[in-house]
């Protein structure tokens, strides 16, 4: 899946063209007195898969949730610092979090289709955001999204069936299709394969590789093998700090920080 030469060329090209999608500066997150994210600075590239790795509780999911303001829904969470999406501060009071989450979609650990038909799972977002003028346009969006979710062929003859009638792996691809239906620019994935078997995992990983042609994809994973397979850039978190960030190939073969080395060699975590 990953040809290191191609990745370096692509990543360098992205850097050359200054294709930074998300810029975080001096980000702190507190849950009450717990300082969960400390002084995080990071530039996440467009059309790239970025993996967040690190031991349990190091803050990967917390930082991921900052990028689409999902932490707003947690009463005791407090965020400081700056996160820019295409240069715009996503915490500016003028930003509507609902609109932001259409642009910065999210896929969760457990597939969570709505208790609706396959068609309505996809059509829900485009309907509330007014993306289709009529049924024909909505049909088009539904088909396009299911194709991007690499699940169209499996469901095209049963769009009226409940989303929950699909297998776990199919449900997760349905949720990815649902996330892309609102034309996002960034896709956040929080351990999207942890509830899937190896075959479904391979299918979702292949899909992630395809998605980076269009989106900036950020994935939290506990699996270093998965990070190595699907990502071009990796960020290693430890105790709330972003310890090291760089080309995935460098992080795994030539880490600069002793904490990264300990983690990837299995000494911490
Ligand atoms: N909703 C919450 N309320 C209070 N504290 C939280 C909440 N979510 C996370 N935390 C705390 O923030 C810290 C970072 O947790 P987080 O879930 O971001 O880590 P993680 O690296 O994603 O862990 P894991 O790999 O186990 O999912 C931990 O100390 C955790 O207890």
Descriptive account of the structure:
The chain has helices spanning 4-16, 60-66, 97-103, 118-128, 135-148, 152-155, 168-180, 198-211, 224-230, 248-253, 258-264, and strands at 20-31, 34-45, 49-53, 77-85, 88-89, 104-107, 186-190, 216-220, 233-238, 241-247. With 269 residues, the chain is an alpha/beta fold. It folds into two domains: 1-92 and 185-269, Rossmann fold; 114-183, no CATH class. The strands form two sheets. A six-stranded mixed β-sheet has the order 6-7-8-3-9-10, with helices on both faces. A four-stranded antiparallel β-sheet has the order 2-1-4-5. Helix 4 (118-128) crosses helix 5 (135-148). The relative contact order is 0.18. The model is unreliable at 3-8 (pLDDT under 50). Bound molecules: adenosine-5'-triphosphate (ATP). Adenosine-5'-triphosphate (ATP) is lined by residues 31, 34, 36, 54, 56-62, 74, 76.
């Amino acid at each position: 899946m990953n040809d290191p030469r191609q990745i370096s060329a692509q990543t360098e090209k992205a850097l050359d063209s200054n294709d930074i999608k998300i810029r975080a500066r001096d980000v702190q997150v507190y849950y009450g007195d717990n300082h969960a994210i400390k002084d995080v600075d990071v530039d996440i590239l467009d059309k790239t898969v970025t993996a967040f790795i690190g031991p349990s509780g190091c803050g990967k999911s917390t930082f991921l949730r900052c990028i689409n303001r999902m932490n707003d829904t947690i009463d005791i969470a407090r965020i400081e610092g700056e996160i820019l999406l295409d240069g715009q501060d996503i915490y500016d009071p003028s930003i509507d979090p609902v609109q932001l989450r259409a642009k910065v979609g999210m896929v969760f650990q457990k597939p969570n289709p709505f208790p609706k038909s396959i068609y309505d799972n996809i059509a829900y977002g485009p309907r509330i955001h007014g993306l289709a003028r009529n049924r024909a346009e909505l049909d088009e969006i539904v088909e396009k999204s299911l194709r991007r979710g690499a699940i169209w062929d499996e469901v095209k003859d049963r769009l009226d069936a409940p989303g929950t009638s699909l297998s776990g792996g199919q449900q997760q691809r349905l949720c990815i299709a649902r996330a892309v239906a609102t034309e996002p620019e960034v896709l956040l994935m929080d351990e999207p394969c942890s509830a899937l078997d190896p075959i479904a995992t391979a299918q979702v990983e292949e899909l992630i590789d395809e998605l980076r042609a269009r989106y900036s994809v950020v994935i939290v994973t506990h699996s270093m093998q998965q990070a190595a397979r699907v990502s071009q850039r990796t960020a290693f978190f430890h105790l709330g700090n972003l310890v090291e960030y760089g080309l995935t190939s460098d992080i795994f073969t030539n880490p600069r920080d002793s904490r990264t080395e300990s983690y990837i060699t299995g000494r911490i975590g």
